[in-house]
Design a protein that fits this description.
The chain is of the alpha/beta class. The protein has a single domain, classed as Glycerol-3-phosphate (1)-acyltransferase (3-Layer(aba) Sandwich), CATH 3.40.1130.10. Helices cover about 40% and strands about 15% of the residues. It has 7 helices and 7 strands. The protein has a 7-stranded mixed beta sheet. α5 packs parallel to α6 and α6 crosses α7. The longest helix has 19 residues.
Length: about 190
């Protein structure tokens, strides 16, 4: 059984209704999410709550890679007990990568924002880092692309997540990364 599964489930049970009632989001194509086996969830990153969407889209526990600063804050207990993986973005964090790879090799789910940080620019997407496709190749994991569109505003009713069909890395990492980028871009443009 996954470490922190109990606390993750409790947090989800307590916090999901608040998120759903407050934002009234829509979930599209969540049936694309594989029910078992190693999976990497990859999507655009515009808001601190973006990881909530994939978590509420599946019964599977998702271990999100989260910046080290969260683990240096007074809320580190929350991120640790929710099964997040601390990432030092100032270095090539091999410890974080090893933790994620270990989970994937055991058939679990990991969440990564390939942009590496929140997109606060006017660009649709920031350039993608190669971590997600590299880990997918090493573990034969499915990549599940998703796009979050709309605004995080009280009962605005335009906030939604749309999933694309999962795929595995075939060919070069550059080709896979380009495919991932294009899949998410396509979803963003479709739902703009």
């Amino acid at each position: 059984m996954e470490k922190h599964k109990v606390t993750y489930t409790i947090y989800k049970f307590l916090l999901a209704p608040i998120f759903l009632l407050y934002y009234r989001p829509k979930f599209i194509n969540k049936n694309y999410i594989p029910k078992k086996g190693p999976v990497i969830f990859c999507g655009n990153h515009m808001h601190v709550y973006d990881q909530c969407f994939p978590m509420l889209s599946t019964n599977r526990m998702i271990h999100y890679l989260a910046k080290k600063e969260y683990f240096d804050s007074k809320f580190k207990w929350f991120f640790k007990s929710a099964g997040c993986i601390s990432v030092n973005r100032n270095i090539k964090d091999e410890t974080a990568k090893a933790s994620a790879l270990e989970l994937l090799k055991k058939g679990y789910a990991v969440g990564i924002f390939p942009e590496g940080t929140r997109n606060k620019t006017d660009n649709l997407l920031l350039p993608f880092k190669f971590g997600a496709v590299s880990m997918a190749e090493k573990t034969n994991s499915y990549i599940v692309p998703f796009a979050i569109t709309g605004k995080y505003k009280f009962k605005k009713n335009n906030l939604k997540i749309t999933f694309a069909k999962p795929f595995k890395v075939e060919g070069s990492l550059e080709e896979a990364n380009n495919k991932l980028y294009e899949e998410i871009k396509k979803l963003l443009l479709l739902n703009k």
